Amino acid sequence: MQYLRAFILILAVAFLLGCSDDNGDTGTNPPPGNGTAERIDVSMVNTTFSPADITINAGDTVVWTNNDQIIHTTTSVSGVESWDSGNMSSGETFRKVFNNVGTTSYRCEIHPVVMTGTVTVQE
Ligand SMILES: [Cu+2]
Question: Can you list the domains of the chain with their CATH numbers?
């Protein structure tokens, strides 16, 4: 019985610690908007962006992942947002939070003819 009480006490303490840990987590800044920001993944594969054209909500994060064996970039060309990943080797990721409403076209600087895409941000 003594052991059982001790065990329950440990569980309770662990639970409380876990809760306070969650509450104290300020590691990431909450994006603006309705608080339901999402992560949208774009794969760099077969020298294309997949999906090439995405529509997201303000505050969402786009994560590009180079799933090819060659170097790519994700680089804005024109529009409301501006970014440049620089050279991304195989397996590397680049992430960006989009807050400005509107469409931005982008491309891979190494394969600018065949590797293009757009990010459209809606409110
Ligand atoms: Cu490329």
Answer: 39-122 (2.60.40.420)
